[in-house]
């Protein structure tokens, strides 16, 4: 029976599935320096075992210049 139904195109999923529209990712554009900044956090190993630091960096996406950073202990 399943083979006959499959050949006739009658076999399908009967449950309702939610269909969401695709989300558009925001895209930031910069025509010059100082217009759009981004940030990053990186973990740095310290001098001893179990000692870690966090490096917080601000990045200008146009010129890739780093206008500011901060190193903080965890």
From TrEMBL:
It holds the Pfam family rve. Residues 29-74 form the Integrase catalytic domain. One of its GO terms (biological process) is DNA integration. GO terms for molecular function: nucleic acid binding. Residues 14-23 have a biased composition (Basic residues). Residues 1-29 are annotated as: Disordered. Residues 1-13 have a biased composition (Basic and acidic residues). This is Integrase catalytic domain-containing protein. It comes from Actinospica acidithermotolerans.
């Amino acid at each position: 029976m399943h083979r006959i139904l499959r050949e006739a195109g009658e076999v399908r999923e009967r449950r309702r599935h939610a269909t969401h529209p695709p989300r558009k990712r925001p895209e930031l554009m910069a025509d010059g320096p100082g217009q759009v900044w981004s940030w990053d956090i990186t973990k740095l190993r310290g001098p001893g075992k179990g000692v870690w630091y966090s490096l917080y960096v601000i990045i200008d996406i146009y010129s890739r210049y780093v206008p500011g950073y901060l190193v903080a202990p965890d």
